[in-house]
Amino acid sequence: MNANRSRDVYIDRMHRVTEHIDQHLDQFLDLESLAEVAHFSPFHFHRLFSALMGETLGAYLRRRRCEVAATRLLAQPRLSVLQIALGVGFGSAEAFTHAFAARFGCSPTTWRLRLAAERAAISNPDQANGKPDQAEGWQTRNNDVPRLQAETPMKVEIVERQPTPIAYLRHVGPYGEPIGIFWQAQVYPWMVTNGLIGQPRYGISHDDPRVTAQEQCRYDAGCELPDDALVGGNAHRTTIPGGKYAALSFKGMVADFEPAWDKLLREWLPSSGLQLDNRPMFEYYPTDSTYDPATGVLECKLCVPVMPL
User: Fold this and answer.
1) Tell me, what's the pLDDT at 134?
2) Could you tell me the maximum CA-CA distance found in the chain, to the nearest angstrom?
3) Which residue, among 218, 182, 199, 201, has the nearest Cα to 303 in the 3D structure?
4) pLDDT tens digits, 39-92
5) DSSP character for 294?
6) Residues near 55 by beta carbon (within 8 Å), at least 6 away in sequence
7) Rounded to the nearest 10 degrees, what angle do helices 31-38 and 3-23 cross at?
8) How far apart are CA 138 and CA 144, in angstroms?
9) How open is the CA angle 13-217-23, to the nearest 5 degrees?
10) Residue 139 and which of 48, 191, 195, 269 are 20 to 30 A apart at CA?
């Protein structure tokens, strides 16, 4: 096995581990069980994870639990802080509060109340005008400020999806325009080389850029695979889990993705009677989806995994 192929195997195994972590955040995750997912010995896995991921396994687990909790605090106001803490693997509200404050510089309750104040200011601008501190919003330690737009009706459908095998390439870094460049410069040539043009496509956002540092945000761009497909070019494989998803039809430019996701998560979801689970959110591009290179306008469905509240 050559050096490049060997490194691809290592990276693929780390992708499996981080995928397993995200889908099992509510469970006890220890070194031994995660090493087994990676097919490494615990002794070597601990060191390899730090070398390839840039942070220790313990630090990564704490960060992901806090970041997922931060998103849920905003998207699921009906859930108590304790419910959210248990849902991402903390054993108590006290342990969660301590870790959350270390990550974001405020308590989970303060994080949620500040968002509620901003929502109230948008709903009642006259009142906000009389309270400058309320109108100005708020800041966190990382300047990750959830900014809400005025609420408008949304057309969201609940769909049942089957598990879907895909091959994908990964981008690590800021979302937005760099993602468009990633698709054009790397993903499209890879699709051409591997005969994947015409296959349904997916864009999987593993992180919330409002709460995760830009340089740590992960995005997978991939295609559905025929059963007999052999795909090269540093690609990895995974299966998008089946189940219920809330799907919003999207038409716009790359810059419009973040406001659309915000509206879906922070306006529609809290009123839906549903809640997020641990499956990934993704963009789904059916075979008949369109893209206008002259304007940059594209079509897709924004899919959020949901379960009963």
Assistant:
1) 37
2) 68
3) 201
4) 999 988 989 999 999 999 999 999 999 999 999 998 898 899 999 999 999 999
5) T
6) 63
7) 130
8) 10
9) 50
10) 269
Structure tokens at 189: 């040539």
- How far is Cα 13 from Cα 49, in angstroms, rounded to an integer? 10
Spatial distance between the Cα atoms of 291 and 305, rounded to a whole number of angstroms: 25
Q: How many CA atoms lie within 13 A of 255 on its CB side?
A: 2
Q: What is the CA radius of gyration of the chain?
A: 20
Q: Return d(Cα 86, Cα 73) in angstroms, integer.
A: 13
Mean pLDDT value across the chain: 87
Task: Please count the other Cβ atoms lying within 10 Å of the Cβ belonging to residue 42.
Answer: 14
With a cut of 60, say whether residue 136 has pLDDT above it: no
Within 8 A by CB and 6+ apart from 239, the residues are: 163, 164, 165, 166
- In this structure, the chain runs to a length of 309
Helices (H) and strands (E) in the chain — how many of each?
12, 10
The pLDDT value given to residue 147 = 45
Per-residue model confidence as pLDDT tens digits over 236-293: 999 999 999 999 999 999 889 988 998 898 889 988 989 999 899 999 999 999 999 8
SS3 201: strand
pLDDT > 50? residue 139: no
pTM: 0.82
